Structures are given as C-alpha cells and as structure tokens.
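TASK: fixed-backbone design
INPUT:
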C-alpha cells in the first residue's frame, strides 16, 4: 500500500512541478540557451559545431594520423547512417521518437514506476531531444532544476529543428566510450569499420553503450556490456524489430576485443612536426587557444608533404647501414624537394613513444666540413674561382686578433692532400687548412651571410672556425640550404604541410612554393660542379648513386663526435647525421671503424637516394655558362686581363706582374689572352705571435664538451 501511495504522490508532484516549471522558467531558460550559443533573445536555438577530429594525409592520400583531444569524432550526415543502425539506437533510447513531442509523458510515467518500485533511479524518461540538450548545453547532474531546464529547452529546440536534424546531431554527439564520440568514431573504435558498414549486431552493441559507456565498456567490463547489449536485444524483440531466431544468434556473438597496439612508425616524428607547425600558424587563429581548437576540434583536412615510399626507404636505409649500438649512436635523415621546399622524408629517431626529441629538426649539432659549402659560395661571390689556389699544408696558424690566443690553429683530418691546392681539390679532399686560409681571406661575416641566405636558421657568429662547422645546425637546415644550390640559387623554406581545409572545404593554409633568388645562378652552378667532384673522386665517393650526378660534402666534427653527409641532385636534397643522442660522444669504434662523414652517413645517403630517385627520370645539373666569368665580382673582366695582371686574393686587387712571374707566384688559370697568376702568402706570415706570460687558471673538465672547428 505504501508503494502505491508513494507512486501516485510522486506522479502528482513530478507532473505539477514539470508543468509549472515549463511555464515559469521558459523565458529565463530561453535566455540562458541563446546566450550560451552566441544568439540573442528571440533567435532560434542553435548549437555550436560539434568538435571533430582533424585528419592528416600523406602525399599519396593515405592517412598518417588523426589529431583530437578528448573527443574523437567524425560527424556524418543522417543519410549515411543505415536504417537498421538508426532503429537500434531508437529502440534502445527512445522508440517513440517520431511519435511524441519534445517530452514523452508515457516514457516519464514508465520510468517513474520503475524507479519507485526499485527505490532508486534505474531508468530515465528523457527523449532523444532532451538527451541532446543535456549533453550539449547542460550537464548530467540529476537535479530537478536541471530536468526542468532540459524539458523547456527541448520544447524550444523542436520548434526550431526537424526531428531528422535533431537525430543527426544526437547520433554524432553521443559518447560511446574509449574517446569515441558519435557513431562513426564508435564504429571505427570497436569494429574498424565505417558506420554504413555495420551489421545489426554491431549496431546494437553501439546503441547499448549510449546509456553507460564506461560501466558497460566491452573491453574493460565485458560482463556488464553483455547484460546491457542483451537487454537492448530483448527490447527490440518486444518491439517486433527482431525475430526469436535473430535474438538467439545475436546473443551468441562475442564482444569486440581491443585492437592490437599500433606499431611505432618513423613518420610519427614527421606528424609531430606537422602538429607543431600548425599550432604556430597564425592562419589557423590569432591566439594559441584558437589554433589549438582548430587543430584538435576543428575537423580539418591536413594534406602533408610526406612521401610514404621515400619515408619507408629512409627508415630502411638507416636500419640497414647504421650498426646497432643499443641506442648509443643514432642517425637522422631529412630529405627536401628543392623545387618546392616540400619535406619528403624525415627520420628523427628510432622510437618516438620513448624518445620524442627529433634529431632531424631539433638536434642542432656541429656539421664539420659539410659547412665548407658556405665558405665556397662566399669565396665565389668574392671573386674567387674553383681553380684559384690556396695553401693547404698543416699545421696552420691563422691570425685571429679577436681571440685570446691571437691565432686559430686547426689541423687537417680526413684530407690527405696538402701543399698548394686549387679550391676544387681542397674541397674534394676536405683540406681544413686550405679552408682556414680561405675563410681568412673571404671573411667569416660573408660566410654567415651566405649561410643565412641559403637557409640556415640557427644562430651563427662570424668566427673563423665557422668554415669548419664549429657551430650547431640541424639536418633540416642543412638539407634545405643545400637545396638552394640544387634549385640554381633559389631559396624555398622547407614546409611539412601543403594545404589545410576546414570541414566545409574552405582552404585555410596553402604552402608558398615560389622561390626567392638568393644566389647568382652561374656561381651556384660553379659550386655544384665543384661539389660533384667530392662524390666522384673525393671523401664522398660512398655516396655515389648509379646513373645520377650527385653533389655533396662530408663532415666530421672534432673527435669524430658528429658525422655528416649532405648532398643533392636537381630533384632531391638530403642530409644525414650520425652521432649520440645524449651528447658529444666520440665514434672511434662503431662497427669496427672510426666514423667519418664518408662512412656510414654517406652510405645511408646512397641507399636512400638510389631508391628514392629510382621512381623518376634522371635529371642532370645545368652547367655554368662558359662565357660567364667572374667579372661582376672581382677585378678586371677576363677579356681585359693580360699576362701582366693577376688577382691576389689576400690583397683583394689586380696587381701587375712581369711575365714570367717572380718566384712565389703560381698559375691560377689560363684565359684566351694568356695566363693569370696568384701569389701564395708565405707560411711565416701565419706564425703565432709571441704572447706575454699569462696566469694559469684551473678550469674543471666538462664531459662531452665539443671542441670547435675540426672539420673533416
């Protein structure tokens, strides 16, 4: 008797409260709803767009990754949701949805009876419209005031949207557990399918999760998941939407199991770089928060530059060539398309989940002699030619008044050549002392200027040791800068994203692939001719690619702590670095050898480039114009030179001499009207000046501290 009395009292109170609440609170609640959605009083009730994940695509259209925060959602239109899937959801949550209004009094009564009998809240009477209001505009707290607001807003919503529009929004908004929001994300999460591929049993499982996605999680709470699923199956049988035979078969089906963990991919370093680039791009929002919302909730279509085939070949080359040292030494690789600036492959490490520091874009290290390229280019701009000669003998003491010692004293490492060398031969054999003398004549400030113009973004100081790569740079910068040479002197900033579209298909971001001329084309071609000989007969012979002409340069920093090979063809520029991720550690016994740029790095470059270039036609470098000369950069033009003039680089001028020249002069090159001579400054001019005694200070030794300027 008490139960019956309690039942009728509850109905009377709830019914009266609901009726009065709807009347009295309709105005205030309407203002609350419109203000929360950006409207004004009297406007139709509208919703903000649902958060949607952004999808990242590779160059070939394959999916690389998805970006989302808590809500992994892919909104789909209602006509993409099959009728049997809609039926399962409606039977589970609101089987009379198309028959009643915003509030279903019959369902409220039924729910109240069940709850009174059980003494608790075991069943809800909310319609799908009410549920949509709750999950979109309100919260899930079970309070009378919230239920009244929910009912009032539901009534208002059904006056502004059709039943089909409300259902579509609902099916895309519901949470199904494991970060899946909406039926499409749920289908992918639990069945690795699209929603339009679901069968009846799979649809029922998703529908059963709506009421309690955590407590009935099929992966973590299988018993509860089975009970809830079977309850939905029984409900559909009662409603006449399943036969007895179908019920038995559906209840016998097992629950879905968690998918295997995704394998670690090298492209994870690439996609992380894409993410950071977008979060820094003001075209996606003025503030960091706006950009975050766009990337993780905006449903963007992100088309990147990554070539999956080249990426796979890059990872394979590193795996095949670099010895397994238990993680002590690693290699990084980045490859850029010179004609567009597009980054086609990136190997930033071996295990992104455990080592997210990207050695290709974040790991600035000393590039050694691979930095001589910028001194070579600065020398050409200053009027030198590849045939100009310079002394390469060691030891070499270069006057450096700005230093404490008063002189810089590098040594030769890889290159065995010495004596008087042409700039070409000094480059081919990577003769440090030759380049030390050359940078003294050219000026380190000009080397910095050239490096910056070509694409080095790292901070650089105009020290003499810059010519031997004593200042840190990234593999990305080096590949990009060498790409300027490959593009005939036109600079294109490297980019990872080609285009970004919003969910309506509007273009938000589009890469600028137009080049900016930063180097003279003739001088660039002359530098390339010199660098091709490094690969043909110098320290970079291991980098040669069959059928292709390759230009490049090796590099090894002091004590073999970093080893590089950076090279290019007209279609691809690639930098390979090898060293210790933990710091500056000497590689004196790796795979039984001492590591230089011409060893493992050159071999990684060769294997990768041979595979990457095999898919396209062979393209040759354009040769420099033989009638060009260097008249705009130095002294007298070729046609005005006579045997009685020569260019003295150390003096920066044309100087008259007799023919034959006096002792100490060496032949530079031969012009149509006779030879031109240069003088080599005698070695004594580079002797270290005697310094007064200095006090001795004890400096604590630092581990792994790089010593500048070894080159190699």
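OUTPUT:
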């Amino acid at each position: 008797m008490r139960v019956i009395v309690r039942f009728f009292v509850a109905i009377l109170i709830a019914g009266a409260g609901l009726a009065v609440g709807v009347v009295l609170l309709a105005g205030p609640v309407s203002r609350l709803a419109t203000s929360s959605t950006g409207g004004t009083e009297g406007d139709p009730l509208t919703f903000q767009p649902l958060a949607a994940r952004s999808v990242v695509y590779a160059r070939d259209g394959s999916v690389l990754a998805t970006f989302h925060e808590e809500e992994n959602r892919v909104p789909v239109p209602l006509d993409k949701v099959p009728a049997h899937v809609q039926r399962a959801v409606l039977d589970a949550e609101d089987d009379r949805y198309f028959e009643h209004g915003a509030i279903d009094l019959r369902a409220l009564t039924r729910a109240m009876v069940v709850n009174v009998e059980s003494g608790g809240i075991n069943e809800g009477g909310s319609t799908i419209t009410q549920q949509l209001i709750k999950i979109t505009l309100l919260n899930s707290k079970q309070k009378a005031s919230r239920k009244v607001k929910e009912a009032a807003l539901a009534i208002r919503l059904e006056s502004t949207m059709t039943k089909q529009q409300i259902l579509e929004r609902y099916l895309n908004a519901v949470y199904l557990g494991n970060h899946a929001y909406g039926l499409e994300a749920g289908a992918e999460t639990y069945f690795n399918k699209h929603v339009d591929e679901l069968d009846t049993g799979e649809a029922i499982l998703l529908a059963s999760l709506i009421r309690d996605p955590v407590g009935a999680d099929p992966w973590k709470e299988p018993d509860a998941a089975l009970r809830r699923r079977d309850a939905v199956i029984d409900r559909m049988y009662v409603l006449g939407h399943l036969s007895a035979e179908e019920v038995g078969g559906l209840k016998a089906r097992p629950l879905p199991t968690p998918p295997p963990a995704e394998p670690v991919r090298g492209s994870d370093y690439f996609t992380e770089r894409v993410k950071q680039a977008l979060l820094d791009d003001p075209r996606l929002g003025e503030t960091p928060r706006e950009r975050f919302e766009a990337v993780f909730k905006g449903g963007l279509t992100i088309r990147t530059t990554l070539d999956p085939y080249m990426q796979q070949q890059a990872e394979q080359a590193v795996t095949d060539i670099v010895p397994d040292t238990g993680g002590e030494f690693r290699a990084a690789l980045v490859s850029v398309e010179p004609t567009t600036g597009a980054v086609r492959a990136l190997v930033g490490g071996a295990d992104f989940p455990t080592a997210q520091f990207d050695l290709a874009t974040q790991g600035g290290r000393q590039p050694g002699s691979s930095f001589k390229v910028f001194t070579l280019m600065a020398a050409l701009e200053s009027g030198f030619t590849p045939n100009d000669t310079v002394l390469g003998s060691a030891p070499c003491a270069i006057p450096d008044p700005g230093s404490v010692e008063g002189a810089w004293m590098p040594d030769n490492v890889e290159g065995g050549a010495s004596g008087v060398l042409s700039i070409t031969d000094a480059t081919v054999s990577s003769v440090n002392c030759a380049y030390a003398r050359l940078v003294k004549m050219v000026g380190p400030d000009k080397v910095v200027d050239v490096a910056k113009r070509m694409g080095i973004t790292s901070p650089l100081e105009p020290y003499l040791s810059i010519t031997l790569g004593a200042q840190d740079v990234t593999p990305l910068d080096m590949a990009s800068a060498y790409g300027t040479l490959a593009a005939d002197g036109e600079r294109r900033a490297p980019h990872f994203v080609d285009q970004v579209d919003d969910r309506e298909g509007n273009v938000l971001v589009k890469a600028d692939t137009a080049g900016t001329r930063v180097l003279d084309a003739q001088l660039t071609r002359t530098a390339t001719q010199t660098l091709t000989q490094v690969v043909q007969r110098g320290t970079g012979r291991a980098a040669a690619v069959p059928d292709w002409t390759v230009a490049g340069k090796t590099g090894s920093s002091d004590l073999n702590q970093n080893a590089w090979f950076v090279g290019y063809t007209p279609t691809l520029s690639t930098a390979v670095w090898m060293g210790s991720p933990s710091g500056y550690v000497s590689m004196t016994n790796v795979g039984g050898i001492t590591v230089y740029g011409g060893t493992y790095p050159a071999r990684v470059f060769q294997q990768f480039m041979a595979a990457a270039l095999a898919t396209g036609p062979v393209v040759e470098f354009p040769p420099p114009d033989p009638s060009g000369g260097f008249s705009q950069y130095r002294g007298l033009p070729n046609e005005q030179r006579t045997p009685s003039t020569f260019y003295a680089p150390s003096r920066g001028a044309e100087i008259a001499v007799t023919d034959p020249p006096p002792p100490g002069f060496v032949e530079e090159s031969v012009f149509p009207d006779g030879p031109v001579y240069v003088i080599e400054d005698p070695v004594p001019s580079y002797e270290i000046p005697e310094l007064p005694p200095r006090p001795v200070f004890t400096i604590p030794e630092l581990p792994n501290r790089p010593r500048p300027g070894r080159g190699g």
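COMMENT: Residues 638-681 form one domain.
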